[in-house]
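Study both lines:
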Amino acid sequence: MDIQIDTAFMQMALELASRATIATSPNPKVGCVIVKDGQVIGRGWTQPVGQAHAEVQALRDAAAQGRDVRGATAYVTLEPCSHHGRTPPCANALIDAGIARVVAAVQDANPQVAGRGLTMLRDAGIHVESGLLAQQAREMNIGFFKRMETGMPWVRMKVAASLDGRTALPNGESQWITASDARDDGHQWRARADAILTGIGTVLADDPQMNVRAVATPRQPLKVVLDSHLRIAPEAKLLQDGSTILVCAQDKDQAFLSRQQALAAKGAEILHLPDAQARVDLPALLLELGRRQINELHVEAGATLNGALLAQHCVDELLVYLSPKILGDGAGFFHIPELKKIAEARQVVFHEVRQIGDALRILARF
């Protein structure tokens, strides 16, 4: 087969995958293109949870046009599923439809699939190829792959700072370091996340809503607050709507139980995850969020929690908005132990640098 033609159709499938709404999570976003005699006869992408996957959508699209898919090639950005979840296996749908060739960008990391879908297709006599534009396909669902491979979500830490790396003035003022374009862009990243994490320091200082407001979204992310001693007030804005988990570490004395009861009455879930130092066990929290099928965790916190997450190697990616301002003395990104040598510094790789309004947006990965 012509690699250039295959690549063009797979790129088309990736573009379709990008149309899948965030409502597909915890399922991955997948695109599918069905091609026969050089012509696209069916297109599809993952629908919200519980509805059709990309392959079934593409088959339905072809049927709606009166096109015969027998003998066609299906280009799909992720290995077709082979297990019964909320919907039947897509591999079976392709087999039953008479598809002759399947080109999958990347093998599914879900242990329930993990090559079984491709094997089912081959056993049915379908010609199968895998690996075309695999990195792009993996990037499309980076949180899904991280969770399937480690049990933890992809952790993205967002910071807005001046050009000299300050996140607030010495008196605590921080609104607004960046302009509205960068703030709106930040809400796009909130919207794609399954959960937003912050600390009690931020809640007490700013009383944030911690929701998506600047962009349209079919659902709000879960809110997670690290609050070792349950100091949050029941009247806090982030408890007024949506789902919230308060993660604590204090011994459950009578005063604690009283506060817990008041917060539970506001709809908050209380999660007790102490470590050996009676602080919140951060790796255990990530595993718990992974168990709850959180693919991407978006962190918007202060320097103390940011530093703790970094120190325990709990961050995959930094999302930094650098404003063209110089603030001088003030708060920094992270509270981390003083280094003695440059060689001890944590190293990141600049994954992407882009201008958003008058700010620079930097994606840096560990």
